[in-house]
Amino acid sequence: MKTQLEPLDLIMLVDDDDTTNFVNKRLLTKLGAAKEVLIKKNGAEALEYLQKSAQEGVAYPDLIFLDIKMPVMDGFSFLDEYHNQALFENGSMIILMLTSSASFYDLERLKGYTSVKKHFSKALTENDVKEILIDYYQKH
């Protein structure tokens, strides 16, 4: 029996690579994973959005796909600020890391962030998205 999952309200892609964003947004849209997919080009833009969400009540993401290596503010700096500002208290958002070159050091460092559930290689696949939706959002 196939379970139909409700689409999430908002997924945020945080990545400086336009091609990766295009491919991931197209896949998420095709699969009906979310009502809206929002793209931010670096951690600073994503933090600004989350702060605005906390202050002005704009939609808070259900899920963030976060790249590790970006200019302006990388994924680790984003995570540090996200925790320092206690932005995680605004909801039950899940953060998943996306990377094209995860070093052992990066993967070990990710274990220190409780908000990061898992990491995936770029670009997302249909199986990745289905696994994520079932593991984290299917009501049991």
TrEMBL record:
Protein name stated in the entry: Response regulator
PANTHER family: RESPONSE REGULATOR RCP1, RESPONSE REGULATOR RCP1-RELATED
UniProt keyword list: Phosphoprotein
The organism of origin for this protein: Rufibacter sediminis
InterPro entries to which the protein is assigned, alphabetical: CheY-like_superfamily, Sig_transdc_resp-reg_receiver, TCS_response_regulator
Post-translational modification 4-aspartylphosphate, affected residues: 67
Gene3D superfamilies, alphabetized: 3.40.50.2300
Pfam family, one: Response_reg
Domain Response regulatory: 10-137
